Amino acid sequence: MKKVSRVELIKTLEQELSYKRFIHTLSVAGTASSLAMCYGADLEKAETAGLLHDCAKCMDVRKMQKVCEKAGLTVSSFEADSASLLHSKAGSVLAAEKYGITDPDMINAIRYHTTGRPGMSLLEKIIFVADYIEPGRFTAKNLPLIRRLAFSDIDEALMKILYDTLVYLNSTGLVVDPMTQKTYDYYKQIFEEKTIYD
Length: 198
Prior knowledge:
By secondary structure, the chain is an all-alpha fold. Helices cover 68% and strands 0% of the residues.
C-alpha cells in the first residue's frame, strides 16, 4: 500500500479521532519532532509516528482484538480487555495496513509507546517520552522535571517515566503490564552498570 501523505494523514485522523484525542495527537507529533531535532533523529519519522501513535485509540476494544488477531499479533491476558494497552498493538497494525507505513522502527515506536520494551531504539524512546510530556498533559507526577530531562538526557527521562508509572499503578491497585516492569528492570540494570563504570 502507498504511504498516505502528511496532509491526508492529518485529515483522516481528525475525522476518526475524538477532538480531545486529535489535539493530543498533534501535540505528541510536535513534541516528538522537537525531540528528534534535539537528538538528531529522523524528523519525518518522528512526526509521523507521533501522529499515528493513537490511531486506534477510539476503536472499540473488540475491534482492536480482531485487528490484532487478523495480523497474527499475540494479545496477552493483560491487554485483552484494556483499550489503554491494546490500542498500541492495534495502532501498529493500522499504521501498516491503512496508512502504508513499512518502516519497522516506526511500527515498533507505535506498538510500544505505552509500555516501552527492553532495547528501545531512539525513535521508540522519542515517541514514548513525547506521549508522556506533550503540553496537554498536566496530572502526572514530576512532569516539569521529566520535561527538562527529555531534552538533556532522554534515557534518564525514560527511566523516570517508567518508575513514576509503576509507582502510580501500584499505589492505585491497577494491574501492571509485565512489559512495563520488564522495561524498567532492563533500563535500571543499564543505569546501575553505567554508574559503576563511570
